What does this fold into?
Amino acid sequence: MTDVVVQSAARLRSVSGRKLKSRVFEAFMWLAGVIALVPLFLIVGYVLFRGIPALNPDFFTQTAPPPGLPGGGMAQGMMGSAMIVGLAIVISVPLGILTAIYLSEYGRGRLASITRFVAEILLSTPSIVAGAFIWAIVVTATRTFSAAAGSIALTVLMWPIITRGAEETLRLVPDDLREAALALGVPRWKVIVSIVLPTAGPGIFTVVMLSIARGLGETAPVLLTALGNDFMNYNLGQPTDAVPLRIYTYAQSPIIAWHDLAWGGAIVLLAVVLTLSIGARILSDRQQRRLR
Amino acid sequence: MPQDPSTADDRPAEAPVTRRLRIGDGIFRSTSVVVSAALIVLLIGMLGVLLATALPTFRTFGLKFVIGTQWNPITDQFGALPYIYGTLMTSAIAIVLALPVSLGLALLLNEVRSSIVRNPLTVLVDLLAAIPSVVYGLWGIFVMAPVLNDTLEPALGNTLGRIPGIGALFQPTTSAGNMLNAGIILAVMVIPIITAVSREVIAIVPTDLREAALALGATRYETIKMAVLPYARNGLVGATMLGLGRALGETIAVAMLIGNGLGISASLLAPGYTIPAVIANEFREATAIGLHRSSLLALAVILVLIALVLAAASRMLVRNTAERFAVKPEEVSTTLEMP
It folds into this structure.
């Protein structure tokens, strides 16, 4: 009799032990969530704290100050970033969308699966390798670092991103739309250009926004190809500055005034990149709701 | 022109407009095929160019390039072991720190049913992935490193550093930059990647399995342990490999924090150097004279080969999990989240 009582009591205790274990595990999951987010708030908070005081009209209109002199800004970096990423977009958006059209509209066979695999593999290429590749062929061939080389290096990274994202968006376009147009005798290419692409348009736009954000934030591949420049440069064939390059240089310099400029660059970069990322996310949520 | 009814071709005559549109079809299609093929050529070309330019180094040093410890552009001696070691150590620290957090977070995102908690959490984790690496580096060098160098690192040296054996990893140094700092910042950077892929892999596991476990009276922890993790295991390994690939290739944040010190030191609190960091720091001086440029590109070859093998293996593992539960692999977007 007592035996049974003792046994069931032991079982009871083990039940509560199991529950306790589960509770502890749940606490661990929540703790993981907190640990992952703490750096986000610390980084964004500190960039705001140091960056806002560094922003003034000079920051946006002046170029790099000579060592020891106060003032100066990052105008040449912002201009350079716009040029390098702008040209990269001009090259990689058509390439990426055409590849995506092939994959979603035509591709059935071996070439399609290889292309898809290659796009995925290229997505995992370390960005410094893309930079080293373009350094090894474009920079050594032209004998100069240049904004154009920077754009080509970014294209290596952005083309697969746009391909992958645009393909997923194109797949969301209902087949009914394609079939309806084809049944009316509209040729395939026209269906794609005037029905499929416009329907997928907002989605593709968000993909392009994300790839711009990625391109703007890249340091290593741009460093190896565009090198940086203290002065304003509008020539695509010349060494050109970019905001991340400037931040990288200033952060490692012993000059305190330059650290402030680095924080100013960081807040500008972070504001643009996060706006693009959040904006893309809001747009794509809206788009997906519309297609469902 | 009226068509001769005697011809064997009994297709209806095409109006010129239709014919022109058909030609348009051919052009459009072949353009997209050519561009797609160009993407494949790009990958092959990249590997080809890197290998070709790295060849003189591999020819001269052979295996000694990988196991050699001397890196001296003046004497034209190049051995990459310190860089390979630094890259592997920092990535290992990153994975060890990031994996439990990412797994816990991925499970949390799947367990929490309330979208008020889940959606913001998902968005915030993705934002972590959007922060440019130079901003991580800037914050790391001015905020994180000074704090850790004054608190965590002496503490580690005084506790774990005193234990024989493992203590070798925690011998204190006076260096501001060190491998532990670089590894910690890398961990923060790979958490969103491992989390995103893990979350999708875990979401694939059918709810039947979970419900069966719950119906048998399993607690939440037991359900996860028995009905979720075993089925998601391959995909989770894949997620980790993807994070590892990302950690190995990260350049700027690591270059800013690791101290860029040559030599191989057992202590994580000592400075180190990584493959991407040395490429970024030395490419300016590397001319075609001698083997310096070729050796930097040989480092890039080693890096890209490791990264590509990891990427391919990781896709296969994630796919394998997807196929097991008959989800179309295309539907598992392991990459839509910004890498």
Q: What stands out?
A: Chain B has a mean pLDDT of 88. Chain B touches chain A through 96 residues (CB under 8 Å). The longest strand of chain B covers residues 71-72.
